């Protein structure tokens, strides 16, 4: 039950704080003692630090649970001042009552005058004890502020993650729409010439779309590198069907992609870019794709020869979005280098699996 669970959590918190509080009270007093321990010393220690330390703890916990959290929510200074005054007065009154009835000579005795004992009056005790109560309330306020800051920091991080996931979802949607548009154009080209390969292309596209829709738009999500490469191979297979040139794309994979993970849909835009703006139907000038992976990271490169004709007026939407995704998903863990000459275009992406290995984006 939620109510019982909350009660047990509060009880555990109370017990932990109480144990820590008493350990600090006794510890500081014992360390500060310079004389020999006697029965009277232990008695005074248990009265001042044990019993009255417990009463101070109740003051501390009341402020932690009742006064300061309400102030942080309402920012009502008048209510805060009145609550603090009431707490200090109530705590001092309770302690005076206990001292006056059970430990009069241990707590209230001020000395002797004309052979008679002098004891603190109620108002004298209130004035002297108010300072210690104020220190207890300062400790309580610091405690509440610290955990309020931790909670706010946690909330800010959660909001940042939600914002990151939202941005990633938008980028993924843009990439998927761009890819789908180009894929449908390829199938449309095959259909115009009544190629029997339209069926294979449509089936391959359905596999590609199935993989794309299965990937959640979450920055921390990773899929197996082997699955990402199979998705890349399906994309290449569809491009081979479109161009009718099986030898115009060369894919080389080294390492064991089964044992590594990568953010999904990260590699295909580089290959797509090679087909959009490069030569893709000449076996002598193939698109070369290389993937090398090991325990430290992955090295992915795409090289193609350029065509004079610009195939896609949408330009670099894909690669621009990939750069943004890399910043969201692999901040400080990747290096992207793009080199372009008059006749050739190449891109190289390096990703470190380990967060401790910082890298920086380079190239153009």
Average pLDDT reading: 80
* Spatial strand sequence of the major β-sheet: 4-6-7-9-8
Query: What is the N-to-C order of secondary-structure elements (H for helix, E for strand)?
Result: HHHHEEHHEHEEHEEHEE
Computed over alpha carbons, the radius of gyration is: 36 Å
In terms of structural class, how would the helical and strand content be classed? Answer: alpha+beta
Distance between the amino and carboxyl termini: 59 Å
Q: Quick one: overall form?
A: rod-shaped
Helix content estimate: 55-70%
* Portion in strands: 5-15%
Main beta sheet strand tally, sense and closure: 5 strands, mixed
- The helix count comes to 9
| Overall strand count | 9
Low-confidence parts = 312-316, 356-364
Task: Give a verbal description of the structure.
The chain contains 9 helices and 9 strands. The protein has helices at residues 2-32, 39-74, 77-102, 104-108, 122-192, 197-214, 225-243, 268-277, 317-329, and strands spanning 109-113, 116-119, 223-224, 249-254, 261-262, 287-293, 297-305, 334-340, 344-352. The chain is of the alpha+beta class. Strand 8 and strand 9 (344-352) form a beta hairpin. The strands form 3 sheets. A 5-stranded mixed β-sheet has the order 4-6-7-9-8, covered by helices on one side. Strands 1-2 form a two-stranded antiparallel ribbon.
């Amino acid at each position: 039950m939620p109510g019982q669970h909350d009660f047990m959590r509060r009880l555990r918190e109370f017990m932990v704080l109480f144990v820590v509080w008493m350990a600090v009270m006794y510890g500081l007093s014992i360390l500060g003692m310079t004389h020999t321990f006697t029965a009277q010393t232990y008695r005074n220690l248990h009265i001042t630090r044990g019993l009255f330390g417990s009463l101070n703890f109740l003051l501390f916990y009341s402020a932690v649970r009742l006064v300061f959290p309400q102030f942080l929510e309402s920012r009502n200074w008048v209510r805060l001042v009145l609550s603090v005054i009431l707490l200090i007065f109530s705590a001092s009154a309770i302690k005076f009552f206990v001292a006056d009835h059970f430990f009069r000579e241990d707590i209230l005795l001020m000395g002797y005058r004309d052979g008679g004992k002098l004891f603190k009056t109620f108002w004298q005790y209130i004035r002297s004890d108010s300072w210690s109560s104020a220190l207890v309330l300062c400790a309580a306020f610091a405690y509440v502020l610290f955990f309020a800051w931790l909670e706010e920091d946690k909330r800010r991080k959660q909001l940042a993650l939600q914002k990151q996931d939202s941005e990633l979802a938008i980028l993924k949607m843009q990439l998927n729409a761009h890819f789908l548009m180009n894929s449908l154009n390829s199938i449309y080209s095959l259909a115009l010439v009544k190629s029997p390969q339209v069926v294979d292309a449509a089936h391959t596209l359905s596999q590609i779309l199935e993989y794309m829709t299965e990937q959640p738009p979450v920055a921390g999500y990773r899929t197996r590198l082997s699955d990402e490469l199979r998705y890349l191979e399906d994309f290449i297979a569809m491009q081979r069907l479109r161009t009718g040139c099986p030898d115009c794309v060369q894919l080389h994979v080294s390492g064991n992609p089964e044992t590594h993970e990568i953010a999904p849909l990260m590699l295909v835009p580089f290959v797509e870019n090679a087909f959009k703006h490069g030569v893709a139907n000449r076996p002598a000038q193939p698109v070369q794709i290389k993937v090398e992976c090991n325990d430290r990271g992955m090295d992915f490169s795409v090289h193609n020869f350029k065509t004079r004709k610009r195939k896609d007026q949408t330009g670099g939407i894909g690669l621009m979005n990939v750069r943004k995704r890399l910043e969201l998903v692999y901040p400080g863990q990747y290096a992207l280098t793009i080199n372009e000459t008059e006749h050739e275009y190449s891109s190289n992406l390096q990703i470190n699996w380990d967060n401790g290995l910082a890298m920086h984006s380079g190239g153009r």
